[in-house]
Structures are given as C-alpha cells and as structure tokens.
Write a structure and sequence with these properties.
The protein is α/β, with parallel strands linked by helices. The chain folds into 2 domains: about 240 residues, Aspartate Aminotransferase, domain 2; about 80 residues, Aspartate Aminotransferase, domain 1. Helix content is about 45%, strand content about 15%. It has 11 helices and 15 strands. The strands form 4 sheets. Strands 1-9-8-7-6-2-3 form a 7-stranded mixed β-sheet, with helices on both faces. Strands 12-13-15-14 form a 4-stranded antiparallel β-sheet, covered by helices on one side. A hairpin with a 2-residue loop joins strand 4 and strand 5. The longest helix has about 45 residues. The termini are far apart. Bound molecules: pyridoxal-5'-phosphate. The site of pyridoxal-5'-phosphate (PLP) has 15 residues, from helix 4.
Length: about 400
C-alpha cells in the first residue's frame, strides 16, 4: 500500500506534469494558429495585390505607349498561348505576323515587306545593328548616330561590341555634316531618327542615307521610327523606304500604333537581309529563326495585326490629326504663359518649366518626364485628350 502522503505527492506530481503538457500543447497550438493567421493574411494580401488595377491613363503625359485599341486588346487575349517563335507549330499566329509585317510595310512604303514583330524598339534597333555588323567584314566595327538617338542603341552597341559614335545635333535634328566626320571604313551602320523620343524631331533621312551610300565600308542606313512611324505617313517629311535607300527600320505598333505590349517592329529592305540574323533551330518544326528571343508573345503579334488592320490608314490619320491639333493647342497655351516651347514637328511638345513646378505637377499626379536638357516633354498619344491637356494647364496656372 502506498502511504497516503506519498500518494498525495504522486498525485500532485502527475497533476503538475499534466498541467505542463497541456500548457505546452496550448502554447504550440496558439503558435501554430498565429502562424496560420499570419500566412492566411499574407496570402490574402498577395491575392489582393494580384487583383490590383493597372494605372489609369488620365494623367499619363510622357509615355511612348498608350491604351491598346479594343480590337488589339481582344486579339491579344485570343492569342495569349500562341508562340510565333515556333511558326511551324503555331501557324495561325505566324500568318497574323506575316499580315502585320505586310501592313507595317505599307505604313513605311516598303515594296516587298520583310521583317518581324519584335518585343519592342530596343530589340528592333539591336537586330538592325546585328544585321549591319554580321554582313560587314571589319573586325573593328563602329556605328554613327546623332546624339538624339534613343538609349536602346547604346545598349545594342554594348551587347554587340560596336563602338557608338554620336554627332551633335542642330535644333535637335541630326547634322549630316557632323555625322560625316565620324564615318570611316569601319562604319557598319549610319542611323537617323524619324521622331526623336525627347523632342519629336525628324532627322534628314535622305541625307543620312546618302552618307551611308557614299561611305567606303558599305554601311547600312537604319531609321529609328519607333514612335514617329505612325505619324509620318500623314506629313510631308521624307523618312520612309520610298523616300531614301533605307536598309532597316524600327517601327513599333505598341507605341502610336495602338497595339498591346509587346509589339515592336523591324522592317528590312529585302527578305535576304534577315539571313544575317538566322540561326538553326533543330528541335522546332521550322529549322531556322531570325528573331532575337525564342519564345515570343502571340498576344503582341496578334494585337499588332489587329490594330494595323483596323486603323491603317484612316484610323491612324485621324489619330495623327487629333494629336497634332492637341500638340499645337498645348504649345500655344504654354507659350502664352511665358514658357519657351520647341515647335512640335510631330505631336510631342517640349517646354521649359521651372524644376519646382515640374515637381509640383508630379505630386498632383501628372506623369511627366524631362529631356536631358531639362525640358518637359508631353507626348500626345491617343489617350491624351484635349480635356486632359486643359486640366494640366489649369494645374499649371494654379502654381
Ligand atoms: C525612338 C525610339 N526608339 C526606340 C525605343 C525603345 O523602344 P522600347 O521601349 O519599345 O524597347 C523608343 C522608346 O520610347 C523610342 O522612342
């Protein structure tokens, strides 16, 4: 028999152990529960972040992209899973790409349209320079461009190991005489910009093409009309394949072409020029590929084809005229308020505003950027309406 006191002691001991066990279990449970609550909360906010609405365009004034046309949006959604990088397997989207290139060729007056829908102007510029480098025999290649050239050319030169030589501009336009001084027998490409990103300037493309034609190293003439290409057909500027012996061109449907991103465009004067880009692709149904990326966006290609089919030429003309009117109105409004304005060649207004005003406008939600020289640049893309510009000017008056 266990003595009474001992048994009481044992009871207390057992009770204490049970108490400790229960407490530990409760603690573990509470900790697990709080972890669960934490993860559930984190999961919920992650899900909510996925449901975040994209930005509105009602205060976006400096972007080179715009809202896609409804036809382009619908086409993009239909072809989300198609891969134009494998045209043998994805034949429908490959046909749409041919159609897009054909229509882009019409925009740029290219008689035998060849090229492809890229991921954007950066890829188009890079591929144009790759063509130029690959068809040349020099082992010390350089490229000559005006200082106004888009920074994507700097990236391309870096990737392709090309020396980029830039010549000063006059009134924001390329100066062919200044460029001529930089051209030598190792020059593989001479670049002109038809619609510069900072000032909307159009370089003298025929003079730049002549520079290429006269150079010893037989360089290509590349025109970067990434944004300007959808405005220039409705102006008197000489910029296209019909206006000069241009070899390659960047012209991006996902800018003023109103296609969904990503839809850039590379055009080449003759289909054979693409051979300089071709690599073997043994495991695909088609065994050669000229594009830079392998798998590509079917959405971008389909949306480019849809936007071009819908808008070329009447829709683009109407968009250009509206944009040019808006640019002229804004330029006048800013001049009346005493700001220096660069006369808009294309629908892009560059104006001198005090830095503090620019900051205040940004704080009020206006998405505006400045050029390297500090001018505010407003790009009149289709989403930029007159009433938007009126409220921008009203905000400006307020400061
Ligand atoms: C003239 C020009 N070229 C090239 C590019 C690069 O295009 P992306 O941003 O589509 O690569 C831009 C972009 O704004 C541009 O304005």
């Amino acid at each position: 028999m266990v003595p009474h006191r001992l048994s009481a002691g044992l009871d207390v001991g057992v009770g204490f152990c049970v108490y400790i066990c229960v407490r530990v279990r409760v603690c573990v449970c509470v900790r697990r529960l709080s972890k669960l609550v934490f993860y559930a909360g984190a999961f919920q906010s992650w899900m909510q972040s996925l449901e975040t609405e994209p930005q509105q365009f009602d205060r976006v004034l400096s972007s080179m992209c715009t809202e896609p046309h409804p036809a382009a949006r619908a086409a993009a959604e239909r072809f989300l899973a198609a891969n134009p990088g494998d045209p043998g397997t994805y034949q429908q989207v490959a046909e749409l790409e041919q159609r897009a290139v054909e229509l882009l060729g019409r925009v740029a007056s290219l008689s035998e349209p060849a090229g492809y829908i890229t991921s954007g102007g950066t890829e188009s510029n890079l591929q144009a320079l790759r063509i130029a480098r690959n068809r040349s025999a020099t082992d010390d290649p350089n490229v000559v461009a005006p200082t106004s050239v888009h920074f994507s050319v700097r990236k391309a030169a870096d990737v392709l190991n090309l020396e980029l030589r830039t010549a000063p501009t006059t009134d924001h336009r390329a100066d062919p005489a200044a460029m001529a001084e930089l051209v030598d027998r190792d020059t593989v490409c001479v670049i002109g910009v038809a619609g510069s990103t900072e000032y909307g300037a159009v370089d003298p493309i025929p003079a730049i093409a002549d520079l290429a034609a006269d150079a010893d190293g037989d360089p290509t003439c590349h025109v970067d009309a990434a944004w300007g290409g959808f405005h220039l057909p409705f102006t008197d500027h000489d910029w296209s394949f019909a206006d000069a012996p241009v070899d390659t061109m960047t012209i991006d449907p996902h800018k003023a072409g109103q296609a969904a991103i990503p839809a850039g465009g590379l055009l080449v004067r003759s289909p054979a020029m693409l051979d300089a880009l071709a690599v073997d692709t043994p495991y695909l149904e088609t065994t050669s590929q000229a594009s830079l990326t392998g798998t590509r966006s079917g959405a971008g290609v389909a949306s480019a084809a849809a936007a071009l089919a819908e808008l070329w030429p009447a829709g683009y003309r109407a968009a250009h005229e509206r944009a040019q009117d808006n640019a002229a109105w804004l330029a006048d409004a800013l001049r009346e308020r005493g700001h220096a304005v660069v006369e808009p060649t294309l629908p892009l207004v560059a104006a001198e505003l005090p830095g503090s005003t620019v900051e205040q406008l940004r704080e009020r939600g206006w998405r505006i950027t400045t050029t390297r020289r500090g001018a505010v640049r407003i790009v009149c893309l289709p989403h930029v309406t007159r009433s938007m510009l009126r409220s921008f000017v009203a905000d400006l008056d307020w400061f």
